[in-house]
Design brief:
Helices cover about 70% and strands about 0% of the residues. It has one domain.
């Protein structure tokens, strides 16, 4: 039996598409876009309002992560003695990472180091928003207004400074609520003690942004090196020169260790120098639009 010939497609759908295409602009939709409001919201009045619009959602996401980790770490702290009795090797690992204190203090010192590394990741991501806005050509029209470069950059850097403070505070508070609220006066200083190292890594990202904007994403290497050296270096018995590559290894292991101001002053001074270098070079260089 001979095959039945196929039916020819109806020309009407094609004619309809052609008719619709004649009624729209090139690369536009059939329905015209609705114009936005004539005036911006008062919340967008100024560079900080715009920075808040761009940074708030990532900030809330990171803050939620700090909250969850605080609950988890606080819940685990109550069973540390049982865990160590079942696995004696765990005591050595916690002692290497958390210092030679009581097992609970050593555990929380280790936890605060981990939270500090996480805060450093957030600080770098907040700083890199400057490069993202510049590459997307969003910074040029804004800087063509009376808004100065330092004011625009500072509006984003505020999140790199204050965001880690909020995240570490929330983690310490929730960990204390789950474990023992009486430990909050010990856990909060231990958490905030990570800030000089966190801000130093953010300052490295800012210095790269001012000096060599195309290499700004390389600041993630500082986070990676600090993470590997801080968490793995003591267990591998690396030399002191290698451990010194991480700013977190210079900080006292709180709670449990004695507080010394020297490393805090040194890290903050280096942070201020790198931040000043990054802002000064950004103020003088041309905007770079390459990705």
């Amino acid at each position: 039996m001979a095959a039945r010939p196929g039916r020819r497609p109806h020309p009407r759908p094609r004619r309809r598409r052609v008719r619709l295409s004649t009624r729209r602009d090139v690369a536009a939709g059939i329905l015209p876009p609705r114009p936005g409001p004539a005036e911006a919201s008062p919340r967008l009045n100024g560079p900080f309002g715009l920075a808040w619009r761009l940074q708030s959602r990532p900030f809330y996401g990171w803050l939620a992560g700090f909250a969850v980790l605080g609950l988890v770490f606080g819940g685990v702290a109550g069973g540390m003695n049982d865990l160590i009795n079942d696995n004696p090797d765990l005591r050595d690992i916690i002692a290497d990472l958390g210092g030679a204190a009581t097992i609970t203090d050593a555990y929380f010192a280790m936890v605060m180091n981990m939270l500090g590394l996480l805060a450093a990741g957030y600080a770098v991501s907040a700083t890199l928003k400057l490069r993202a806005e510049e590459s997307a050509l969003h910074a040029e029209p804004l800087l063509a207004t009376p808004t100065g470069r330092l004011r625009w950059a500072s509006s984003h850097l505020l999140f790199a400074l204050a965001g880690p403070v909020a995240g570490l505070t929330v983690s310490a508070l929730l960990a204390a609520l789950v474990h023992d609220i009486g430990r909050f006066p010990d856990l909060l200083p231990a958490a905030l003690a990570q800030l000089p190292a966190v801000w130093l890594i953010a300052a490295i990202a800012l210095a790269l942004y001012g000096l060599v904007p195309r290499l700004t994403p390389a600041s993630w290497a500082a986070v990676a090196v600090a993470t590997l050296v801080t968490l793995i270096g003591p267990m591998l018995d690396l030399g002191q020169w290698a451990l010194d590559l991480s700013p977190f290894t210079h900080l006292p292991k709180l709670p449990g260790a004695d507080f010394t101001a020297t490393p805090f002053v040194a890290l903050l001074a280096l942070t201020a120098a790198l931040a000043a270098l990054g802002l000064a070079t950004f103020r003088r260089r041309d905007l770079s639009f390459a990705g």
